[in-house]
């Protein structure tokens, strides 16, 4: 028998060494992280020769490849989607295999541009579908964190473990109810709740250094500026792929699909997630010049102007809440820097916005914050809230994941109390988790708040974590959930707080 390929010999040596030291948690009944390694060990324990394993894999792979080839040949759209997903997975696989510090930024990037990639694919094929393989590409790419974690021993700080346990109980309950009641929507929603938690676990197991944290925040802010620039380009020109998507989804709240006639969503799937991301990036950019990235100070007004074009009024309230939180918990020097920056931006905004394309609409939209009683949108939201409260109370055990939000599209639009959205995150929690599950959920958030306050005050990421939690709490008044991109942002800042600083650069 010829010499085995070098990569195969290397993988076999790793698995054999881990098997010898009994690090495969799956066989010891302590979780599924070592499942792949367990399968390899199972082959070895049965005494099957390595050449036999290769033949078995080949025999299993050939019919699978034939089936995939035949099926995709009849579905060119699926073939394109599959090719794109593989192209997105390859960098993630390489970064996870090498334990690169760019794995987390790459995953965040896919969450930010995944919707735009899907729009480009739909436009190139001339067909639109509400849910397809590219819809879950951020989840698939984020799943590479499991592969990265499978290669190492899982050791976390006790506080991180306590926090995960506190969230896991209500999450698991809502997941079971959601899968049973909401089927595919429940599965999709469960993945969007659980997979983002892997970011926190990964950071807890692989504590980043201060240099790595600074690098990530710079990349984070840079991404926000780039999305803002594309948002302006989108607003002025409306690229054909974005126009095609707007026409297909017929989302009235976005506006009309023509230049200067809509609310920008940049590379995301709606204005809300874009506003959340921009708000989360603005405060780091304002308070610390090390976090601003290559755009420097000019990036701040670019982000503010793009935030204005989303016409999401709740984002301004959330931003103000974040500024107040930073003023209360930040260092003295950064407090005054924050106030000075806000004052300057306010003056510039009042002068410049009316002169910009669509500026009058932005000014009118913001001015309605002072007269909400005459605002139709605010009144509709209030009426929806009053309708939803008795519906939530009539479902004390909750309706599980997949009962509200975008995932209801997988159930043909069937949603909680006939509502696609409750427009209140707090009621949304009780609708999905039930009364008892909702209490457990908010208990977990209270634990996290307490832990965050007890972090060393000299840690700059403590204040960012507090601001993140305050903004999430305020944002819940207008909708949202610890779901999808919101969850990625939440767990990222949580991981930066609770992990220790290492001297070793991975």
Automatic annotation (TrEMBL):
Domain of life from the UniProt record: Bacteria
Gene Ontology, cellular component aspect: membrane
Residue stretches making up the O-antigen ligase-related domain: 302-442
Keywords (A to Z) from UniProt: Ligase, Membrane, Transmembrane, Transmembrane helix
GO molecular function: ligase activity
Pfam families (alphabetical): Wzy_C (PF04932)
InterPro entries: O-antigen_ligase-rel_domated, WaaL-like
Keyword tRNA-binding: no
Transmembrane segments: 48-66, 78-96, 103-121, 133-150, 162-181, 187-205, 217-236, 260-283, 295-326, 338-356, 426-449, 469-498
Its membrane topology: Multi-pass membrane protein
Compartments in which it is found: Membrane
PANTHER family: LIPOPOLYSACCHARIDE BIOSYNTHESIS PROTEIN PA4999-RELATED, TEICHURONIC ACID BIOSYNTHESIS PROTEIN TUAE
The name this protein goes by in its record: O-antigen ligase domain-containing protein
């Amino acid at each position: 028998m010829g010499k085995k390929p070098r990569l195969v010999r290397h993988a076999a040596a790793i698995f054999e060494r881990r098997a010898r030291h009994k690090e495969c948690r799956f066989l010891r009944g302590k979780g599924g992280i070592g499942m792949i390694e367990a399968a390899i060990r199972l082959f070895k324990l049965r005494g099957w020769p390595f050449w036999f394993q290769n033949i078995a894999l080949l025999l299993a792979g050939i019919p699978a490849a034939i089936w995939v080839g035949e099926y995709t040949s009849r579905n060119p759209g699926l073939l394109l989607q599959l090719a794109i997903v593989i192209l997105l997975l390859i960098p993630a696989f390489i970064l996870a295999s090498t334990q690169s510090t760019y794995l987390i930024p790459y995953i965040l990037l896919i969450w930010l541009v995944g919707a735009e990639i899907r729009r480009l694919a739909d436009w190139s094929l001339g067909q639109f579908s509400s849910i397809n393989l590219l819809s879950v590409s951020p989840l698939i790419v984020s799943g590479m964190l499991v592969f990265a974690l499978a290669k190492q021993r899982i050791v976390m700080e006790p506080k991180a473990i306590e926090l995960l346990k506190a969230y896991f109980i209500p999450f698991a309950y809502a997941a079971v109810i959601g899968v049973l009641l909401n089927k595919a929507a429940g599965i999709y929603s469960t993945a969007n709740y659980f997979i983002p938690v892997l970011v926190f676990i990964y950071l807890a197991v692989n504590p980043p250094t201060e240099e790595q944290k600074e690098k990530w925040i710079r990349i984070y802010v840079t991404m926000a500026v780039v999305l803002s620039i594309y948002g302006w380009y989108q607003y002025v020109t409306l690229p054909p792929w974005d126009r095609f998507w707007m026409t297909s989804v017929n989302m009235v709240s976005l506006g009309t699909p023509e230049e200067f006639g809509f609310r920008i969503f940049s590379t995301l799937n709606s204005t809300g997630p874009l506003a959340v991301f921009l708000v989360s990036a603005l405060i780091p950019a304002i308070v610390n010049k090390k976090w601003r990235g290559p755009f420097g100070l000019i990036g701040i007004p670019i982000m503010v102007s793009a935030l204005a074009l989303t016409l999401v009024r709740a984002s301004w309230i959330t931003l103000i809440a974040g500024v107040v939180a930073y003023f209360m918990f930040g260092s003295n020097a950064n407090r005054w820097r924050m106030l000075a920056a806000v004052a300057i931006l306010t003056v510039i905004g009042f002068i410049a916005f009316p002169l910009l394309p669509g500026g009058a609409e932005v000014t009118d939209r913001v001015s309605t914050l002072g007269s909400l009683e005459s605002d139709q949108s605010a009144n509709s939201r209030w009426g929806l809230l009053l309708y939803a409260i008795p519906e939530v109370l009539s479902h004390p055990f909750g309706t599980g994941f997949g009962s509200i939000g975008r995932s209801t599209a997988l159930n043909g639009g069937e949603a909680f109390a006939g509502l696609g959205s409750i427009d209140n995150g707090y009621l949304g929690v009780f609708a999905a988790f039930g009364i008892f599950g909702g209490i457990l959920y908010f208990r977990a958030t209270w634990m996290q708040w307490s832990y965050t306050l007890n972090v060393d005050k000299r840690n700059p990421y403590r204040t960012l974590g507090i601001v993140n939690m305050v903004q999430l709490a305020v944002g819940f008044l207008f909708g949202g959930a610890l779901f999808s991109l919101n969850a990625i942002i939440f767990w990222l800042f949580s991981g930066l707080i609770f992990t220790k600083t290492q001297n070793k650069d991975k």
